[in-house]
Amino acid sequence: MVLVELDDKSTDYAILSHRWGTEVSYEAMVGLMKMEEQERKEVMDCDGHQKITKSCKQAKRDGYKWLWIDTCCIDKRSSSELSEAINAMYRWYQNARVCYAYLNDVDEPVFPTEQDNSKFTKSNGWPEWFMRGWTLQELIAPKQVEFFNKDWVPIGNKQRLAPTLTNITRIPREVLRDGLSRKRLSVAQIMSWAARRVTTREEDRAYSLMGLFGVKMPMLYGEGKNAFQRLQLEIIRISSDHSIFAW
To answer: N or C: which end of the chain has fewer CB within 10 A?
Structure first.
């Protein structure tokens, strides 16, 4: 595996969407071969590295030379690189040829079509991927989304699963099919899709929505709820939609 900077508009690439767990950072990836043998083995055996390896293998099977993964393709030690990446994230998912949505809590070889509160106890009866803040744009932006269970068995795609995805997310089927550009949507409606979703960092509740509203703003981790207020102000600046005041 190599890390290379490429143009997302002229490169055919796959992209990964997933629920974060024990991940491998950019720093760890570039320093992997310089590590002591035991440390390197620990990194390569962790779930995050296995996820990278298996998603790369899937991309290769599908004929793609390049794959983008947020955990190891952003140097988060650089605040400017992190800010640039978050502001470009929606576009990167939108321009990907295919998005692999990895559902790490799905055991069966089929996509769950009914709510199961006994199995998915912490995520309203559905796979946890559907309750995370960042995965909202990662579902909407790409034209093609392929879902995989925890063993990387393919369990369906966005087009075929559209009725179930609409039931889970409340996102209209035409938005799942065509994205946001073909349908006039109110700010309140888009906000409602995110209402039940959660993020680890409070600020990411706002940052994860920027691409959906077409706004850009600098990242200020540590600002807490002020991030959402800044998001609202940016939306007001570019939109005359008063439904935002419902939030």
So the answer is: N
Which residues sit opposite 102 in a β-bridge?
18, 148
Residue 241 burial (CB count, 10 A): 17
183, 172 Cβ separation under 8 angstroms: yes
Q: Which residue, 58, 3, 1, 50, is CA-closest to 22?
A: 50
The span from the CA of 62 to the CA of 55, in Å, is 11
pTM of the model: 0.93
Query: Which residues, in sequence order, are CB contacts of 137 under 8 Å at separation 6+?
Result: 89, 90, 93, 208, 209, 211, 212
- What would the mean pLDDT of 109-130 be, rounded to a whole number? 96
Q: How far is CA 166 from the centre of its chain?
A: 17
Reduced to 3 states (helix: H, G, I; strand: E, B; else coil), residue 112 is coil
